[in-house]
Design goal:
This protein has 13 helices and 3 strands, in the order αααααααβββαααααα. It is mainly alpha-helical. It has a 3-stranded antiparallel β-sheet.
């Protein structure tokens, strides 16, 4: 089975333009399917799996409370894997061809008020290298609305502190974002007093926001520190890295920013994705918004 999964991964590399995170999800979802079969003592061979077996697994995921979005992603992974098996003639029919995803109710994204944002961003208030790093990361994330993956993969050469601009990278293209005074202040202090100590054991590191070993921080690592600061601030909301991105966009809308401008800043390929912030309708953001008017 592992050989087939490895071959599936090779095909993903060659034929699909997917992100490393999506690739990891595909692999994890497929492995969990076969772990379930093993746990249930289902001695299934790859060419004997039926649609009913896959539907039973989906029912199992629903019974243990997996979210519809998680189940939909799992089904997409399973369909991709079995489509690969069928295309490569490992199986004679595709049992996943007609698997149905659960209906997903599109929820309005969780938004923090400006007061809550101020409270959250004030939590890393100490002068240790980690606190200076965390402060700079939170300020920059809210000041630019970038994705967490873009944040943790930033290099030291991506930031131009003097002109308050940063270049972030996604799979398709780079975009240059501007940040305001608060992020400038936090970044300056971090670069002067925090980062040199964090990379003391790995002085060749080019990561802008390294972990304690000087390497790249994981998404899970950043999520944990954000959760910690949210609890410390006493904010009774489910705060994720995307919460700051949503809040950034919503607050720009409140300040009258043009949706096209917000679309460009967030890196949305389709403006309909940006439209959801119109429904959510700050002095901290005003400084950033004033700069967006220069974006063409």
């Amino acid at each position: 089975m592992q050989d087939l999964i490895n071959e599936f991964v090779l095909q993903l590399h060659k034929k699909k333009n997917i992100s490393p995170n999506t690739e990891e999800s595909y692999i994890r979802d497929v492995r969990k399917l076969f772990e379930y079969f093993e746990k249930e003592n289902k001695k299934v061979q790859i060419n004997t799996i039926l649609k009913e077996d896959l539907e039973e697994y989906i029912i199992h995921l629903q019974s243990i409370g997996r979210a519809p979005t998680t189940i939909s992603r799992t089904i997409a992974s399973i369909k991709a894997f079995f489509n690969f098996l069928y295309t490569e003639a490992y199986i004679e029919f595709n049992p996943a061809a007609n698997l149905k995803s659960p209906k997903i109710v599109k929820k309005t994204p969780e938004i923090l008020s400006v007061k809550e944002i101020d409270l959250l961003l004030s939590q890393p208030s100490g002068k240790t290298p980690k606190q200076l790093r965390d402060k700079a990361m939170l300020e920059l994330l809210y000041a630019t609305g970038m994705r967490v993956t873009e944040l943790i993969t930033l290099k030291i050469t991506d930031v131009n502190i003097n002109v308050e601009k940063i270049t972030c990278h996604d799979r398709k293209k780079d975009r240059v974002l501007e940040f305001g005074q608060e992020a400038h202040k936090a970044l300056t202090e971090y670069l002067e007093e925090g980062r040199p100590q964090l990379i003391s054991k790995n002085i060749k590191s080019d990561v802008l926001f390294p972990n304690c070993a000087g390497g790249e921080m994981s998404r899970q690592g950043f999520w944990k520190l954000l959760k910690k600061y949210g609890e410390k601030a006493g904010i009774n909301k489910d705060i994720t890295p995307h919460t700051l991105r949503h809040s950034f966009a919503a607050h720009l809308v409140e300040n009258g920013a043009n949706l096209k401008v917000i679309q460009k800043m967030l890196g949305h390929s389709d403006i309909s994705t940006t439209h959801m912030y119109m429904e959510t309708g700050s002095s901290r953001v005003k400084n950033i918004y004033d700069k967006t008017q220069n974006i063409v």
